[in-house]
Design goal:
Length: 597
Amino acid sequence: MTDIANLLTEHMAIWTAAESEKKSGRGRASGNAGIVYGVKKLRELILELAVRGKLAAQDADDEPASQLLKRIQAEKAILIAEGKLKKEKSLAPIGEDEKPFELPNDWEWVRLGFITNFGLTEKLYKITNDTWVLDLEDIEKDTSVILQKNRFSEKQSLSDKNSFKKGDVLYGKLRPYLNKVVVADEDGVCTTEILPIRCYGDFDNKYFMYALKAPHFIAYVNARSYGMKMPRLGTDDGRNSLFPLAPIAEQHRIVAKVDELMALCDQLEQQHSTAQEAHETLVSQLLATLTHPTVRPELVEGRGSTGSPRTEFEENWQRIYAHFDVLFTTEASIDALKQTLLQLAVMGKLVPQNPNDEPASELLKRIQAEKAKLIAEGKLKKEKPLAPITEDEKPFELPKGWEWARISYLNPEFQNGVSSRGDAGGVSIIVLRLADINDREISLEDPRELSISSDVIDRYRLNAGDILIVRVNGSADLVGGFVLSDREINAIYCDHFIRMRISHNYINPNFLSLVGDSSLVRERIKEMFITTAGQKTVNQNHISSLVIPLIPLTEQHRIVAKVDELMALCDQLKACIQQANQQQQAIADALVAQAVA
């Protein structure tokens, strides 16, 4: 008998080491708890040990499962004789080579279709307004938690309705890897993608639920599911699946032990989540001190190595630097650091200013002079001037030699993308879609072509240094994002994008791209969204009105070089964290494999 308590306590660091995903905030161990990979594997191990008879002790006084099987067979015979159950085609005997593992002496391998009504459903066409109506989306994956209970008066979308009784095991046959299995706590109706399962004879419904959620059963149904986009378990495969039938008394003991251990897993997950949230809060607050520093009078007397007054910024950085190895231990903390580095870059705190650089005010004069010339030559339309930049639009004080400027001041050339419908009889060319943007970079791993009239292709062609701006999407994190075309690409772009082109004599496109990624721009863009039919959009006027720091061109180059250097270091650190995470997951997998061997 595997000592699950010792297995848990002796390897606690492994079980809680690697987080795999964030939960929705509903269901088991709710809040912002993460699903910890080790704890997830521990839950799977508990279920697997349970159905192998290695979790609860066997009792020699228990009635063996063979007797339970005889009662099931007798009950089915009576139901068939009374016409309440149709005589079904006999299921094949179970061969020794089919049995996935050895069971305890008093257990029996049986086919699920022999002991249950798997695949036999009853329709309910007349239901009352207060009847519970269950859809797959109402069940949280893996946890067996009902996320919401809708009544027929609230939700009348079901056409074919499977009826179920309180105590039935409700099995989601669509996308079985989502592991949606629950025990009904009242009567109701459900979609045909959910099968109500009831065992003939005595049974513990929670034991049946746990058995259907055990890893070996999920592996079986995943191997036999059909359909690519929406895989599902077929009725014949479900009926022929093997089920480990335990004595009824032992079923009850197993359920009690599983419930106890799952509660311990909940606690582990919640403790991990609490510690992680505290860590993320600490990192966030410490990084915020770098982007919101002040010069304190008591520090002016102290001098740094250069003889300049020590600032709160310098002190805060030293505090973070001293604890760097403790603070930046997760991928989330590295992402927060990268965002802070971008913000420091646009605040002028990453590289020293050079008094010999041409000040931005002179650069702005040259831009305005060139703009006036283009208007006079008829090459540029005179636009309605935007409102002056107010003090409220300046989130921080700029270094000497920098200026605040709207993007419109830089004479941007905007062009919305081509319609995704294309043109009949046009020239075939690669068209960039949102799917071709990966982590704010252009990828052509899976290019798609579109037929476009040859006389307009050049209008939509991308040059090196162009900025693509995501114009429309359902995600607030994507809309308004700046994507740099770092090379000339023989492709055009669809109407999900706005292309922005600005003379490189004014601004380094790499610098403009990092400004677009910084919170300075991202927070402002989110205030501009127009939402229509669930889609968020921005337009050219929104982008033109953005206020950004205009800085000496030579300093732009220095900032880009420094940001590239620091981001590469962050990526290296993140890769090390990912590698350590993978190693912890591999150890957890090995412990689970050893426990069930």
